[in-house]
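Late entry, written up from scratch paper. The run itself happened at the end of the previous shift, but nothing got recorded in the book at the time, so transcribing now.
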Amino acid sequence: MKAVRVGVLGFVVAFSLLGERLDGGRAAAQTVESSELDTGTVGDVSGLIHGTRHYPNWSDLIFSPTLTQSLGYNNNVLGLPETRTPARGTTRGDWFSSTLVGTSSKFYVGSQDFFIDGNYGLKKYFSNPSYDTTQYLAETGTDWKLTSACSGRAAGSISKTQQPIELQITPGINTLYHNAFTGNANCRIVERMNLLVTGGVLSNSSTQVGSAANNLTASFVRGGFEYVVPDLSTFRVTSGVTDRNFNNRSSGTQGFAASQLADRSTQLDHKFEYQRSFSSKLTIDAMLGLSQVSSVSASTGTTSPTLNIPIYLGSIQWTPTPKLKFLLSANRTVGPPQSLIANAEVTDSQNLVISYAPTERLTFQAGVTKSFLTAGQTASASSANPYGDKINSLNVQGNCAYSLTPFLVATTSIQWFSRTSQNYSASGAVFQLGASYRPR
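Output as recorded:
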């Protein structure tokens, strides 16, 4: 423990000194103009040419680097049930280190804004090297404009991440691969009335054998209208369709009766959304809608009856003082299966987040989320979901962030989760200390 504390302290101090030097001192960093950042202009290097001492700001470069380092302890790395003992040669809990290095760039071609973002990370466990994982993200695209009345975004991305253990179908390490190309447009029709269009294609895949039955490719398109009363309220009506193809279900090679699941599904979503700002202190968001899911059996080719599921969202954000903020929300969503083997996953969740910033540098945040997940049109729990097709989960977390410099932030966080289903009960806690360097 002493070595860990010393290591974290040394990391923070070293990064603080490095940040002061590369940023030209705190005072110099605070004078960077926002317009210079927006256009990606390279900082003045005349001082270097004429031999005077000058430290360039990393935030002025075309590519802006980021670095996040943390140390922590997880008392249930694999999310094992309380009754299961770890495999021989492994431990239930372990210390870990996490490193994430990234870069981003923003530049203009005419009136079009282009961006490139990427990062690479490594998570290493001290006593269980077989648990080590890597992650990455690469994204590029454009925030385009077509006259002053029409704008949007088109972007493509690839990523690799470790699925949070509280969301996994079975215990273990599950790596997720996600590829996507999406685009959206917001075009003014008349004063205060906008046309909304979004669409894209994507693919998801998992490395864990049990989760691989949810591997899919999908395409979606949505459209609707938006009516905006500036600084007061927004009304939005949208409809969309999503087609999903599950790639590993027709072969029946996943160790359960995959033939009882659909290998194709279509989901229609209809939503009415309302946002209202009563004042600078109080904002509400509301949504009512209907999701309709129909599936085609992987074994018989027959289409199942359409499943009609009401969906909703209610959210209140209250800021009684500039330093204190409350966010309370409840919602039901229907989406692709992630934590259950199913044709669709229905999630009911309630969430409370409290943020407190006693100073400009120091911020505390605490939150609790309670969720109930059910499988839409799934095979029986015994054949498709070895731990049951209904999940109750509770997630409690708290974190603290302190700005050492304008670009360097030290953080500490703690998270506790529990997950219970018909045949499964697990819980765990994760504690982390870290620091992030992010020029802006």
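Confidence is low (pLDDT under 50) at residues 1-55, 252-259.
(Scratch paper discarded after transcription.)
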